[in-house]
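Re: the request from the purification team.
They wanted to know what the chain is likely to look like in 3D before they choose a buffer screen. I agreed to run a prediction and write the result into the notebook, where they can find it.
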Amino acid sequence: MVAVEGSYYVDASTANNSLLWKLARRQELSNELIAENADRTNVKNMIGIDNRYSLTYYNLNKGFLKKDSLHYLIRYGFNDHAGASYSDDFFRLIGQGNAYFEGDTADGNGLVFKRSRYDYIDFGLIKFFPNRSNLSVSVGVARGIRMIDLDGRRFSVYTAPYGTSTDWDIDLTARLTPGDQQGFGNVHGMGMQISIDYKGLLGPDGAYAVGVRNLGFISWKGTQYTKTAKFNYDGWYVPDFEVFQDPDAGRNAYDSIASEFQPDSTGFKSTEMLPSLIYAEYSMRLNGKQSLTFRFDKVMNTPMIPRFSLGYTYFFGDFYGTSSIMTGGYSRLNVSQELGYQKGKHFVKALFYGLQAWATPHKAGGLGGGLGYTYSF
């Protein structure tokens, strides 16, 4: 059996789909859109991007090592996960400039941004037990393509009345690999990873699954930038986002203050845990063609909080559908729809993510989807 799967989503706790769509397409952001989203921010806000796909071969027809209950798999996978946590003041400062904070302090403390882009290849064994449960364990190497780890312990800016000066208090550390070297031919670290999945039955109408995907590490090599300082900048307002889209005005505005932000830099070698996915789910059959699934999952080593979901699956002929509602992760609420079709040796499925945000793009956030195809032989 051969399976190909891929998915992509962008999710946010407060940013709406109008903003996320433009960010995903790298389009210009208007001051009106920035202001609209600034009014939605909380003390703590999150945004996450997840892109992954895999190609897997399952040897299920013949036993491995002359054991009928033992089989193997070979898989190539690619994961790119980024997550950020930021304050409402930081969003306004970056998006609207510091004129909004005249006579006050913009508190951007606690800024966090993490990104891991890597691929892997692994070999695994699948053991089927007499009670119809099964255990899959795969181990392989991971190749680091891009890494960013930004820790903004302190980032505050006081703006004097009339914008005559600004007082900065910053303590930022950023470790990253070169941004212009993040293609598949670039390698900035190597590591190992393991995936474990166990599925079992609970009574005649219940089933459960628990597991962890891509639990491991990569030893990265890159550059670390550090800026810890308190200083006063004597000048006018830091411009808003729209000004920076003007090549001349934006460059002049940037050059006037950039010299104050020259960080210390040094090379680094560091071993970092991968953004591994842990999950647990329970499914109960309602009748021959319907079931409910309760699921918990979390991407470890990221700003993402635990996510809980409830899914309702229904079958009609060769088709099935799963409607899910979830809370947590990077968003407050998300609605998704999966559709699948199986005919003979072929199985296809499609996932539509963030339906509530597509319906109300100025009031909710979340977009993405996925595709999968399996051929059995």
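For the purification team: The mean pLDDT is 90.
Please add any questions underneath this entry.
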